[in-house]
Amino acid sequence: MRALTHRSFAYENGGLPTNERLEFLGDSVLGLVVTDTLYRLHPEVAEGTLAKLRAAVVNSRALAEVGRGLELGTFIRLGKGEEGTGGRDKSSILADTVEAVIGAIYLDQGLDAATDFVHRLFDPLIEESSQLGAGLDWKTSLQELTASVGIGVPEYVVAESGPDHEKTFNAAARVAGEDFGHGSGRSKKEAEQKAAESAWRAIRAKYADQLNPTS
């Protein structure tokens, strides 16, 4: 239960233990497992590139998406104030909680169990990171992809909605006048990255024959 106890809930309920120490521990366990996996998968890759690959997998946006996939927001114990400002879907809270859960599994069941848990959740992201371009982020990768198939440079159209304390950004990734992907997030950057990811997948599928010509 401690892994799901946000500090806002703890403070409103007499100073209960929070999940922050577990988050600290889980961050290290996650980093170790992902680093070890990347090291073994890419024996020819230099340290600097390995660090970028790791950052493409272990970051707040990716962690938050993992948390959403697990529906962790439903189970987090939040204070009333944080609950009222959309805390259950706040990327930073979801990301921290994922790390806390990893830390709790490590403490309760050991490194092997924590490693298995990380692999189940993050192996798709690790595999995906190897397909990203030199910049190792979706916007850079999308730009490289659109250049390789000759359809122009992506642009992003972003709209805001919601009150200031719970603002949502909605982005469209547009190439040659066509919207290939959409994304939403708590920040403009997050929304654009999600839109770029969606567009990257759509364009790879659309131009699969050109990108993977048969011999």
From TrEMBL:
Matching SUPFAM superfamilies: dsRNA-binding domain-like, RNase III domain-like
- Look up the EC number in the record and give it: 3.1.26.3
A biological process from GO: rRNA processing
Q: Which residues bind Mg(2+)?
A: E23, D96, E99
The DRBM domain is annotated at 137-205
Describe the reaction catalysed, as an equation: Endonucleolytic cleavage to 5'-phosphomonoester
Instruction: Return the protein name.
Output: Ribonuclease 3
The Swiss-Prot or TrEMBL record describes its family as follows:
Belongs to the ribonuclease III family.
NCBIfam families in UniProt: RNaseIII
Oligomeric and partner information? Homodimer.
Instruction: Tell me which residues this entry annotates as catalytic.
Output: D27, E99
User: Which CDD domains did the record assign?
Assistant: DSRM_RNAse_III_family, RIBOc
Organism whose genome encodes this protein: Kitasatospora gansuensis
**Molecular function terms from GO:** double-stranded RNA binding; identical protein binding; metal ion binding; ribonuclease III activity; rRNA binding
Keyword annotations of the record? Cytoplasm, Endonuclease, Hydrolase, Magnesium, Metal-binding, mRNA processing, Nuclease, RNA-binding, rRNA processing, rRNA-binding, tRNA processing
